[in-house]
Amino acid sequence: MRQHQGRSRSRRTAAAVTALAMLAAGCASNGGATAGSDSEAAEVSSDRLEELRLGYFPNVTHAPAIVGVEDGILADALGDTELTTRTFNSGTEVIEALLSGALDASYIGPSPAINGHGRSEGQALRIVSGATSGGASLVVRDGIDSPDDLVGKTLSTPSLGNTQDVALRAWLADQGFETTLEGGGEVTIQPQDNAAILETFISGQIDGAWVPEPWLTRLLAEGDGQVLVDERDLWPDGQFVTTHLIVSTQLLEDHPDVVRDLLTGHLDTLDQLESDPEGSQQTVADAIETLTGVGLNTDVLAGAWDNLTFTPDPVADSLRKGAQDAAEVGIHDPVDLDGIYELGLLNELLAARDEQEVSQ
Q: In which band, very low, low, confident or very high, does the pLDDT at 25 lie, cut at 50, 70 and 90?
């Protein structure tokens, strides 16, 4: 893992980002506290948080984090609270850091957020906004044209139990195929990291993979693959959560003002992604190369960008379906998701911008 310090710039929205949010008194029987406009106010510390520790991944699906950090938008919104950032390679690492108290907030995929919520019995984290939707597909080699052609084949996912792994196993089950976590069954699933997936697909060692961007586009461009299943086709309106923003419950309890500021910067970043896609793509490409040492082809990045939607909507129904699917395919026991969302602050900010509020 590498660490990266966000750059600051002059604050553009000082009045909005210094407003103190109302903290809601307990929302659920699990004792997790939440913040929202429709709840009773709770006492909060008058001390301004000195440092916010934010995590994210150096990949395209975390473009809202990358652009927010690199262009100084998040640091600007946080004002007197210093932003420090840390990049991760897996959601498991993020959850470990958050549970240990080493991280305050992070951009993260749905499966690790569900796992963290379950491990902490609903106490450790809250989803406060969506970030990215879409950008995942099952890509296969030439000659595989239908689900029936997958019998006896080997497919890959980025890791056992991750978001794409759950999606593949659930889809195969819907097609009537048996799989096992150990790689047995009618279709073999071989989890491996994304770079290895590309290599083994090109070499013919695997027959396909359910992957996120930009690996989806790279399998098509560099591996001559074809899309068998576009995951957008499996969801209402083609929307499913790929990345969202979580914060520790402790941060939300003690410093709702800082969470509000973070969300303000997050929304400002989403506006920039929409208004300047070409500049944002260049920012993402430069940051990924700096953080990982590996450059990203501009055509690949543009192709991946077209498959993603950057949105504050957490697409909550897709998270719940993902949790149900994970339990059904044996990834983990059923998880009670009650209290995982706290969207009150986000909806206050959206209403102030005359933008549509989101639901959970």
A: very low
